[in-house]
Amino acid sequence: MTYLLKNVHLLEAPEGERTDVLIRGSRIDAIAPQLAAPEGAEVLDASGKTLMPGLINCHTHAYMSLMRNYADDVPFSTWLFERITPIEDSLTNEDAYWGNLLSIMEMLRSGTTAFVDMQMFPRMAVKACADSGMRAHITRGLVGENRGDESAKLRLDQAFDEMEYGRGIGANCSFGLGPHAIYTCGEDLLRYVVELSEERGLPVNIHLAETQYEFDSCMEKHGMTPTAYLNHLGLLDREILLAHCVYLTDEDYALLARPNVHVVTNPASNMKLANGAAPVQRMLREGIQVALGTDSAASNNGLNMFIEMRLLSMVQKAVTKDALALTAEETLKIATANGAAAIGREDLGAVEAGRTADLILINEASENLRPLYNRKASLVYSANGSEVSDVFINGQLLMKDRELLTIDEERVFFETERIAERYR
Ligand code: NI
């Protein structure tokens, strides 16, 4: 399809300046005022709208929206091991498919055009992406002590099967290895992940230094911090996404400041599970690359990146007592361009001719954004995601005037309520 957006405001343009944007196939073809519509193009009047790159949610577990508001106000270990894991173990692949679609609905409606998933249901996140047009970087969660463990072997087989499946059906998905954490994966399995990552050219996605308990037990067991332990195993030499990184020592920062390492911060989840606040302002000062994620809807309890951006900035200002910490400009960059870099997609994350068209339109006729003194500030400090009117992924229009074009939302509500009925 070809789309011509007329009279749109770009985030970087001076106030009052409008332009046209031509989307042809999967790419932004041209940006200039008064472009002529090619034959067969759908022309969209975008006056009164701002065009920006889609937000990239770099850490979630999409099927877990099925557990939204199921286990709240409990300690982290109770939440994970007593409440969430038993449900997880009883879900079927079909259940997970509907959970994934529910999450994709929420993400599209709030302007997210790609997400990084650590998931437990082979193929289901991929299938939900293929059916909806969503983009994702998918990693099958791995647990186990040794590379020979039955569960580790089974999960790895599923991971590779899923990659083949995803490539076969042409989903907007890339893939990586997802060892869950240093407290659920043994040293041998983690070393095997390093080997597989090298052999197959796959990036790694892991939770790191999320809780005080994880930090203390790693010190006790290995005599080093979680970050130093990952470095010791060779994981920090790989392309790697590190979710959380709340507990860092002075020495850890230097280990993380590498071009192949991306920290993904999850402010809502860290607060809700009482894990504290990641030292993001200091990470940026130390040259560490930071992207943003929501974590799952079971620990957030949503997947809304506008809310996450606001929390990121506010929390950093609060904990550093520095009102200049995480400006609106920095925060937007973290949620867009840094996210694109984290998933190895430098063609995303900006509105420029030649880039892949993962784009969102913001309705400026929104009372909570008015008056429009500073668009970037309005997006980080005032928006709530409901202002997102249209969403393009890979040049495909997936939401038009807030109507989802590829998802039957009544069906998703019906199926997810049917599943939830079992757990009430
Ligand atoms: Ni997580």
Major sheet attributes: 9 strands, mixed
CATH class of the largest domain: Alpha Beta
Helical residues, percent:
25-40%
Q: How many strand segments?
A: 17
Question: Which regions have little confidence, pLDDT < 50, spanning 5+ residues?
Answer: none
Q: What number is the mean pLDDT?
A: 97
Structural class: alpha/beta
What is the second-level CATH architecture of the largest domain? Alpha-Beta Barrel
User: Shape, please?
Assistant: globular
Strand content: 15-25%
Terminus-to-terminus distance: 44 Å
List its traits.
424 residues, alpha/beta, Urease, subunit C, domain 1, 2 domains, 15 helices, 17 strands, binds nickel (II) ion
Describe this structure in words.
This protein is of the alpha/beta class and 424 residues long. It has two domains: 2-52 and 353-404, Urease, subunit C, domain 1; 55-342, Alpha-Beta Barrel (TIM Barrel). The protein has 15 helices and 17 strands. The strands form three sheets. Strands 1, 2, 3, 4, 5, 14, 15, 16 and 17 form a nine-stranded mixed sheet that branches. Helix 2 (93-109) packs across helix 15. The longest helix is centred in the middle third of the chain and has 20 residues, at 150-169. The termini are far apart. Nickel (II) ion (NI) binds next to loops.
Brief rundown of the structure:
It is built from 15 helices and 17 strands. The chain is an alpha/beta fold. It has two domains: 103 residues, Urease, subunit C, domain 1, CATH 2.30.40.10; 288 residues, Metal-dependent hydrolases (TIM Barrel, Alpha-Beta Barrel), CATH 3.20.20.
